[in-house]
Structures are given as structure tokens and as C-alpha cells.
Amino acid sequence: MVNRSTPPQSSNPEKPDKAQAILAGALQVFTKHGYAAASMDRIASAAGVSKPTLYNYFQDKQGLFVALIHQLTQNNSQLILNLPTEPDLQTPPEQVLRQTATAVLDEFANNPALLTLMRLIIGESERFPELAQTHVREIIKPLMERLSLYLASQPQLKLSDPIVAARIFTGSLVHYLIIQNILQGGDILPLERDRMVDGLIHLLTAGA
User: How far apart, in whole angstroms, are the C-alpha atoms of residue 88 and residue 39?
Assistant: First the structure.
């Protein structure tokens, strides 16, 4: 049985990658029916695979959903996980944080499917708390820990609590995305993305 949150890769490039077909089918079903009504039968049908094949790759719906989030956020996850944890005298933290913030906002703004899945996580968190907790544990926590380590490794920032600073950084981005993209509040609370990013970077680097 493969890890339920990490889609397997086909060892034969000429053979159709069933894992990717399953993820594509799951995306269709989740976005059309929501999480609760997205049965494994529907996902198997949308992916064009049998149920035994589906369960051979992903042991349950929750694991399949988290694997889909992993796939849709893999570029930004890799960017954050590659942040250095030693003092970096070559690249100013302002540049690193701006690149990270811009990449996160771009990925969500240009990926409607990802926004849809985030709405599902928020909307279903009460009925399916284990889904939300798995998302936090397997996706958010490692990224927060890496970002905290990066901030702690940059003494020029003079941050008293890098963990809180990491929460402020990511929390500001998430809040911006929720207001602008999920709650459709862009016209009510207009704020240009670059202005928000510049202000956030200034807030975290003011002591440098």
C-alpha cells in the first residue's frame, strides 16, 4: 500500500500513470460534488479505473484528497522546503520573503481548483475534522516549521520569536486570499497584491 498522501509515480514512462488519472478524476468529483458526496465509486468512474485499482493507489478518500492538495501545491511547497536554515549573506531576506509571498499568491490566484479544494476543507472542517487536521499536519505544519527555521537563521532580522513571525507571514497571506478570492471581498476591501506584500515584508524586516 502506498502512502495515502503522496501520489505514486509510474516506473514505466510508456505506461499510463494511473495515479495521475485517479487524481484528475478525483479533482473532477470533488469540485462537482463536494467532499461528503465524493464517493470512491464516483472517483473510480471519473478516473476510468476499477475500485480495486483505486484502493491499490490510495487507501481512502481522505488520503486521496490530501494527495490532491499536495499535487496542486507542490511548487510552493518545494520553494518553502528549500529555504536555507543557515545564515545567508548573499540573498537578502526581503528578496526571499517577497519571492515566497508572490509565489504563494500567484499559485492560488491562477489555480481555481486549488481555491475550490480550500473552500471544501474550510466548509467541511466541522463534519470532517480529521480531514482538516490531516491537512494541517501533513501540509501546513512542515512548511511552517521550515519557514520558522529560515527566519530564525537570519539574525539581521532581529526577530524575538521566529515562530510567531512565521505565523504572521503565512496568516497574512491566507487572510488576503480568503478575503480576495474565497469571500469575494476584493471590491469591498480592495488592496493591491504588491502593496500587501510590500507592507508585510516591511513589517517583518523593520528591525533589520
Answer: 48
